[in-house]
Amino acid sequence: MEQGNTGTYLKALLPKLGIADALKDKIKLLPPENPAAHAVANGEAEIGMTQISEILPYAGAELVGPLPAEIQLTSSFAVGVGASSKAPDAAQALIRFLKTPAAAAVFKAKGLDPVS
Asked: Is the separation of the CB atoms in 76 and 67 below 8 Å?
């Protein structure tokens, strides 16, 4: 289990699901330099739980799928232009591009949900 946002979420989720005690001796906390999917890919762990976008880069880790919607935690990212930006037009152009179908295809390929 990772110690970042995923780990924090799972520490609260596993007791709610009633499986924390059964898993407590099997959970391995991993440092940031050894993400869950990497540990699975190189045989250090049998199962890893993390964000889909953090699983896909590792050929030896197979994505089983997302958690069911009723227990899924979604991370959202926001973008904005600073009031003192030296290149606000370029920043706005990037934001417009991030909303295009071409960008959406890349987001999906990388395990992220594009802007809807």
From this structure: no
Q: Which residues contact 63 (CB under 8 A, 6 or more apart)?
A: 52, 55, 56, 111
Single-letter amino acid code for the residue at 35: P
One-letter amino acid of 64? V
> Tens digit of pLDDT for each residue in 5-61?
888 899 999 999 999 999 999 998 888 888 999 999 999 999 999 999 999 999 999
Distance from C-alpha of 45 to C-alpha of 58, rounded to nearest angstrom: 13
Cα–chain center distance at 13: 16
Those residues whose C-beta lies under 8 Å from the C-beta of residue 30, and which sit 6 or more positions away, are 1, 2, 3, 36, 39, 45
Instruction: Give the pair of three-digit tokens for residue 34.
Output: 């050894």
Residue with tokens 């995923």: 6
Radius of gyration of the chain (CA): 18
Tell me which amino acid residue 43 is. Answer: G
pTM for this predicted structure: 0.80
23-27-32 Cα angle (round to 5): 150
